[in-house]
Amino acid sequence: MENFFSYKINNKDLEKHKLERIKFTITIVGENNLAGPLSCYAQGFSVQDKSIYKDPKTTLDKLQDTQLFFAELSIEEQNIKKTGRSDSDLVITMIQKLITKLKKDLRLKHYVCILPEHININANRLKHSRVIHPRRKAEKRLLTINKQFAIRSYQKVMNSYKKEHPEFSFSKHMGKATELHISEVKHSGYTKYHRRKLNIIEENNGVTNCSKFAVEIDSFENKELLQSIKVEDIYAGIDEVGVDSLVGPMVATVKVVVPNHGIDQLPVDSKNLSDSSITSLAKEIKKKSIFSATYSLSSTFVDTYGTDVSRTILLYACAIRVRASFPSIRIRIDGQERIEELLNTDYLIRGEESCYNISAASIYAKFICDELLRQTHLLAPKYSIDKHKGYGTVKHLQVIEKSGLSVYHRPNMSQKKLAKGYELPEIDLDIKLLKELVIELETLYKSYPKSFSEFRSGLLLRNKNSIIYKDIKPSKKIQYYLRDSYYEVIKKVEKTGVKITKKGFGHRTNLKQIELPKDIKKQVEFSVLANALNHIIRTAKERAFVFNEKDKNFLRAVYNVNYKYKLPANEQLIDSLREIYKKII
Questions:
Q1: H or E stretch including 479?
Q2: In the predicted model, what is the mean pLDDT of residues 158-168?
Q3: Long-range contacts of 575-583 (CB under 8 A, 24+ apart)
Q4: Strand partners, 220
Q5: Beta carbons within 10 angstroms of residue 340's beta carbon
Q6: Which architecture does CATH list for 2-159?
């Protein structure tokens, strides 16, 4: 991947500045563009040089004389496609590489790097005391200057594209997905400089016109709780679940919980909660909610347009729904990906752990999503979706390997997961190494208990005494989960900015590649399923037929999972509907 990046630098002799403290800024141009390279520009000034701060109208040519260096790191369109990574992920990698190259080439010892505010400086790869966001006017001024230089450099690249493709106004829209650029693409098609195709939001001229794709599956208001609270004291929290699942819809919820809710567990990361805890907390949250709305997008939509686009549509749908009832309410969203159309909105990294409304939204969305997956399990029981919740566990992948994908799977996402293969969850460690692993886990548990889920903490507490004091080795599967817990907990802790030295307890080996079976049953079109379901319900009403509990749950699942999202069915499901119809007549 190193060969994908191009690097160039224009610098002066820094020998006379070797004892000075140097400030440099990094600006990103081309992020989330339709066309053009993705570029990072670094510009350095001496801290002692105050002239750059005095006159805001100083021309770029004059500023160019005072700068110590100007560097560029770029990745071209074709190479962006080859990496298969998102722009936001690539930006973090590029900033890290650029800082490393500058330190090496310029022998920087005393420096401060200033990054734009939308860059997460708490990311593990950027966590450093010398990497900061602008805090003073002078630092913001430096970033503005860098941005002007960066745009001028990027403009030259766009002008060269314009000469080759005069039908595109590259010098105007700079490769961004503006209305002008989108209309040009629709009229003239894509060029070799386009690095991605239009997504559904861009095709529909903004997310405002895309909220219609989201399906509202739950909503309620309880304004009686507002009687003792000022509207100015409340805010809304939004979060989504089901991003990494291979099965089922993505779900997002907006919650407005009373400030004095009295729920001790909030805020908490829903990933660390058991199913029973999520169910009980969801019931408590519902009682304390002034407002709630839940939206979802089908597995087909998520798989076709991607999780990033789906997330944006769901979050926007939730936001406009709560603003319909509370027009001026402030909204807080988990994550750092911003939605331009949403004003008066805060974006919090790891918001579930710091904001009770985001945490409540996450738990309630998980509760709704899990219920949909339990209903999906009734329609495709061999996949055990009610247990793994659609995630790519070993057992889930083994069933897919044997039976293929169901109509409820996300085909593209599943294929990517299957291409990586899987490792059987069994290892056999030496007793000394196993003891060391358990001791390390216990130390982590004492220092960072919140990073342990109920499953991981219970696993440790049940097995530590027998391993440490009695030299009894648990099963190979338990050993695997203990090792897995060690690495997963360290990942969570490091996300908070704490660096931990890892110890080696073995690595992934013998990954098994998966090939899907070719003889999969044909799917039945949605129209056939819809007609069958409507005919059963109509006939049951005419004959005053009462369904038993099993058939009632099955029909409810077909309606909520297939009918609502217009998903096709397989022959087995249609056969089950025929059997129910026979009981009626």
A1: helix 476-495
A2: 92
A3: 577/529, 577/532, 577/533, 577/536, 578/532, 580/536, 580/547, 580/551, 580/554, 580/555, 581/532, 581/535, 581/536, 581/539, 583/545, 583/551
A4: 292
A5: 7
A6: 2-Layer Sandwich (3.30)
Cα(23)–Cα(47) distance, rounded to whole angstroms? 6
The band of 19, judged by pLDDT with boundaries at 50, 70 and 90, is very low
Comparison of pLDDT for 23 and 292, the residue scoring more: 292
Kindly report the CATH class assigned to 208-372: alpha beta
Domain boundaries, the chain: 2-159, 208-372, 431-493, 521-585
Sheet containing 111-114, strands listed edge to edge, beginning at the edge strand earlier in sequence: 5-11, 69-75, 38-46, 22-29, 111-114, 131-132
Can you tell me whether residue 223 is helix, strand or coil?
Answer: helix
The length of the chain is 585
111: which strand partners? 22
Cβ atoms of residues 519 and 545 within 8 Å: no
User: ω before 449 within 30° of 0 (cis)?
Assistant: no
DSSP string, 133-184: ---SHHHHHHHHHHHHHHHHHHHHHHHHHHHH-TTS-HHHHTT---HHHHHH
Q: Which tokens in the block code for residue 403?
A: 């039976």
pLDDT category at 519 given cuts 50, 70, 90 is very low
Q: Which two tokens stand for residue 227?
A: 């009687």
Do residues 365 and 294 make contact, with C-beta atoms less than 8 angstroms apart?
A: yes
Contact in structure between 4 and 83 (CB atoms under 8 Å): yes
**What are the residues facing 132 on neighbouring strands?**
114
Give the model's confidence band at 209: pLDDT under 50 very low, under 70 low, under 90 confident, else very high. Answer: confident
Residues 52 and 65: their CA atoms lie apart, in Å, by: 11
Among candidate residues 225, 228, 253, the one with its CA nearest the CA of residue 322:
253
Same CATH topology for 2-159 and 208-372: the answer is yes
Q: Which residues on neighbouring strands pair with residue 297, listed in sequence order?
A: 250
Summarised one tens digit per residue, pLDDT across range 381-431 is 889 998 888 888 888 888 888 888 888 999 888 888 877 766 667 788 888
Please identify which residue in the block is written with the tokens 């069933």.
399
Answer whether 40's CB lies under 8 Å from 103's CB: no
Return the amino acid letter for 231: V
Would you say 251 and 340 are in contact if contact means Cβ atoms under 8 Å apart?
A: no
